[in-house]
Amino acid sequence: MGESNIIAFPLHRRRKLVEGIARVLESKNGEDANAFWRSTVKAILVQLSESGIGPGLAEQEIGMLLRSVLRDIATRSAKLAR
C-alpha cells in the first residue's frame, strides 16, 4: 500500500483552538505554562498521528500553531496597553 496525502484544516487557522490555548497560557507562568503547552502538543500530535498525518507535517503544524498562539497573545496585550 502506498502513502496517501491527507489534507487537514490547518491548526493555526482554528480560531477557537488558538484563542483557547492563548487564554490558558496567559493565565499561567513559568513551568506551569510550559507543562500546559507540552501536554497540549502531545495530545494534538496523537490526534494528528491517528488521522494519518506524518511526523514532519505534524511538527510543521505545531510550529505554525505556536506562532499563531503567540501572535494572538501579543495582539491581545497590545489592545490592553492602549
Automatic annotation (TrEMBL):
It comes from the Bacteria. Pfam families: DUF6074. This is Transcriptional regulator.
